[in-house]
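Page 47, continued from p. 46.
Same chain as before, 359 aa.
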Amino acid sequence: MAPTLAQPFDDSSALVDFVINQGNGVKGLSEMGLKALPKQYIQPLEERMCMTNVQAQESIPIIDMSNWHSPEVAKSICEAASRWGFFQIVNHDVPVEVLENVKDATYKFFELPAEVKNNYSKDHSPSNNVRFGTSFTPQAEKALEWKDYLSLFYVSKEEAYALWPTVCREQVLDFMEKSEVVIKQLLQVLMKGLHVDEVDETKQSLLMGSMRTNLNYYPICPNPELTVGVGRHSDVSTLTILLQDEIGGLFVRGNDGDDWIHVPPIKGSLVINVGDALQIISNGKYRSVEHRVVANGSKNRISVPIFVNPRPGDIIGPLPELVEKGEKPIYKQVLYSDYVKHFFRKAHDGKKTIEFAEL
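Result:
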């Protein structure tokens, strides 16, 4: 019989052992039927979601991609990337069954026994490219986040077949492959918006030279108002392509600074957001925006983001075409892997990562 005490984990080392070392994750905590949130997950007041700051009337743009190369659609995409940093796309080229399959596969992975999932943890995984974990950076966080994840960095199909969990690898590969068409369409439009008309191989490699897909699991949480699913942050990607389920819980920082806007689930849609790499490459024309995920007291939630990134060894900075036209660069040239390491070295802290690249 699993314990149902209010605080079975007063001792942090017992919690770390159960959640991280044994691979139970927060899913294991959730399934114990805890009556109260373990103290290690209680966020400081300023990091909790205050629902009075939610703009119920506001919504991020929803863009129909069925005629993606029309000037009107292109204008909507570039405006959304400049003003909001986030938008949803519908009628895109990723088949609905591919989306449904990867959602099902996400549930299947997290339903595996803890000892099987634990084979992919930091201490046991055969490769850094496959990582099962919990929270964000537990060793750097004052309060933990209520989320488990499987992170899959794509190197090749061969490596994926050799190392990725069999329960989800085909579905994730299919989702990544089918999304590539849409990613290329979006990047072509966004580059045109910067008057960069030709996306040659070098530029394509800089914008989308590496990809990582995460399977995220946010289990039912006791006292969800005291914690977060994911804390305030912006992504370090060029673009993030997010598939969310029907539960909801993703909030984006509004243009007024203090407000948050809910991103409602739309069946068959994908949520697109600008990452820090594109903000830097575009010299600030496109904005990566802070976002967060709330915990849920009654339903399990999943999401599947594809992070479209430069390659680790790429130097990123404002595009030469922009600087040559007389734009003053506001970011320096940085090694992308250094930027990413800086992000993962600390707890989520809003938009602070970008300061690493500011001149």
